[in-house]
Specification:
There is one protein chain. The chain is mostly helical. The chain is about 65% helix and about 5% strand. The radius of gyration is 19 Å and the shape is elongated.
């Protein structure tokens, strides 16, 4: 189950032990362990608390989106669908488009919109 994998990855990347995460969402260390092993599923209330503590949407925990964390302090993690991530990766591979996006994002959007309308 994707929830268990993502929960464990996020807990570790946030530098939390299972006990610490459990305390923050008001469940036991054993519950966090079971969520991470896929033997138990958190309640909706607990999922919501996990999302807040780990700074991700519940959708991400459930496997619907991928987190994108901007550089810098105090910037909120956002989520992107797999298709959006692949699109951005594709744009980066085309040097001229990538450079245009960096230099003149408005013009780049106009060109992309025009191309999509054709």
């Amino acid at each position: 189950m994707l929830l268990s994998k993502r929960l464990k990855e996020l807990r570790i990347s946030n530098g939390l032990t299972q006990r610490e995460l459990g305390e923050r969402v008001n469940v036991t260390k054993v519950s966090i362990c079971c969520y991470e092993n896929g033997t138990r599923v958190p309640t909706l209330d607990t999922l919501t608390k996990l999302g807040k503590v780990l700074d991700v949407d519940v959708d991400y925990l459930l496997g619907y989106d991928n987190p994108v964390k901007p550089k810098g302090k105090n910037k909120k993690v956002t989520t992107m669908a797999e298709e959006e991530i692949e699109f951005v990766k594709g744009l980066r591979e085309i040097e001229s488009i990538h450079q245009l996006i960096i230099e003149d994002p408005k013009k780049a959007l106009e060109l992309i919109s025009k191309r999509l309308d054709d």
